[in-house]
Amino acid sequence: MADPLLPARLLYAISEQSADLFYATGFFAPDPFLLVHDQTGSRHMVVSALEMDRARRSARVDHVHEWSLIQTQYQQRHPQEKGDEKQLIAFFLQSLSIQRALVSHDFPLGLADHLRAAGIDLTPVEGAFWPERQYKRPEEVAAVETALARTGEAMTLAIELIRAARIGADGWLYHGGEPLTSERVRGEIHAFLVRHGATPQHTIVAGGRQSADPHEAGSGPLPAHQPIILDIFPRMTQSGYWGDMTRTVCRGTPSDRLQRIWAAVQGAQAVAMARIRAGVDGQVVHAAVTAHLTAAGFPTGRTAEGLQEGFFHGTGHGLGLEIHEGPRIGQRGQILETGHLVTVEPGLYYPDLGGVRLEDVVLVEAEGCRNLTQLPQFLQV
């Protein structure tokens, strides 16, 4: 029996962009649709006629409604009005006797204003709309493993392309008689991923000093004897789950300094993985990584010119239906729990040299963590 005093849950978004909406319905659509969890726990979904049959076949809901039928009902009640989107949503919620609803923090403001004016009390949810999303079910872990496998294959392709490059007398890499550029390597990565059912997003191929900026995508010719950061994070088209992997390689002979930096980062990742387990605070893990890098001779600070150097980002983040989701491993504490999937990606960055970052994905377990990333790590190619 419905309890009008209990809040319903309400989402209105594009499921291709909203992880919360896709998680609740398992239904990808390019246009916004409405999801209502009413006071009885029943799940209602309202879509256009275009999506109706597909939603009935595949959406994980109890009831699928069509906008045109709701509009017809609305016009029967209000014959002088056509009924716009906001009016139809308010009318539908009132037909379900919904007086209160919880909404996501990014719920459309205009729609929220209209629903409140219609007498429906809306409360934005602080934090995760579905907290259970952080705890990955076995099928979700398998989906991420598939994404990581495709990511690893794309990474291998990129590394082999760099390995096959000729080192020119000018210190740049050449392939097929032309300079090997960040754009060429990125294009090969993207082409592979698209052919294998994944959508690439802002892939990083940054060489030399460009790699000193962690989110620099990279452009132009790639240098020999210097670090090249490859950070690949595609979303699988069918499942919606993400892969995320970073490797740093050097075609040619890395300097002693670069080798020491790379070894320190690899050691820092091992320090983190040795500490990640259920019940551990991510802040403690991050502090151990920072302490390891500092003890290895690589403290974090700023150059004389005021540029950042050292390790100045978090150790890791949750991964699933979003590329960055909870939990976080960084300066702000969060307890890790069984079923969390997190990246482990320490790095060191120096404006006069470039950067080194290594990233794997682990599953948090009761007594430790399991590395889901299978690709080996090496510097020199």
Overall pLDDT: 96
Helix percent band: 25-40%
CATH class of the largest domain: Alpha Beta
Annotated CATH homologous superfamily of the largest domain = Creatinase/methionine aminopeptidase superfamily
Q: Tell me the strand order in the biggest sheet.
A: 4-3-2-1-5-6
Instruction: Tell me the distance between the termini.
Output: 66 Å
CATH architecture of the largest domain: Alpha-Beta Complex
Assembly category: single chain
Q: Helix count, per DSSP? A: 9
**Poorly predicted spans:** none
The name of the CATH topology of the largest domain is Creatine Amidinohydrolase
Strand tally: 23
Which sheet architecture does the biggest sheet show? 6 strands, mixed
Write a short abstract of this structure:
The protein has 381 residues and is α+β, with helices and mostly antiparallel strands. It contains 9 helices and 23 strands.
Could you explain how this protein is built, in words?
With 381 residues, the protein is α+β, with helices and mostly antiparallel strands. It folds into 2 domains: 8-129, Creatinase/prolidase N-terminal domain (Creatine Amidinohydrolase, Chain A, domain 1), CATH 3.40.350.10; 134-371, Creatine Amidinohydrolase (Alpha-Beta Complex). It contains 9 helices and 23 strands. The mean pLDDT is 96.
